[in-house]
Design goal:
Shape: globular
Distance between the termini: 52 Å
Largest sheet: 5 strands, antiparallel
CATH superfamily of one domain: NADH Oxidase
Oligomer: single chain
Helix content: 25-40%
Radius of gyration: 19 Å
Amino acid sequence: MTIAPHTLPPPPIENDVLPQASPDEAFLARLALRRSTKVAHLTAPGPDNDTLDAILRLAARVPDHGKLGPWRFIILSGDGRRSYGAKVAALLSDRGQVKDAERLALEEARFLRAPVVVAVVFSPVESPKVPEWEQVLSAGAVCYNLLLAANGFGFGGCWLSEWVAYDRDALALLGLTPQEKLAGLLYLGTPTQAPLERPRPSASSRITQWQP
């Protein structure tokens, strides 16, 4: 079943009364079985422009202390994926870090592994009340919400960082300022196969009840 972006409720405006929480078995079942799709198992088509706009609108509905919005999106799609890959490959080559032609070809194709890649950028905001750590957590929530929204529209997604997230020159090529960091690269596309469950930590083994 395809879900059209226009079937979503319109964005509420400030002070609109929103629905209260209520039991939702389908929503809980989706969370209980949530699983990322491996990049190797993503193919075209990816979300079209309208659907991607809807996904990003949903992704942005996260806890955000101080209403600072300390994050933004950069979309890599179409030829932009290859262009950025060529730039980071050239960066490695110019530095002399990578001389192997096969490895450079892999770098050039890094962002072609999915039809759409969304870079979630952490953009800290100076605030006397909101510590940067809380802003980092909000950016992480955006990444996760983006995955859930993409899944809701029937797309697979994978949240990666990779070496470019920690290389200031590569980040500058992507358009980040020196103050910004990359919260994640979200690869989006159509799954070619159903994901398999992986080992997971037991939540119950990490629960303690505080005692006075």
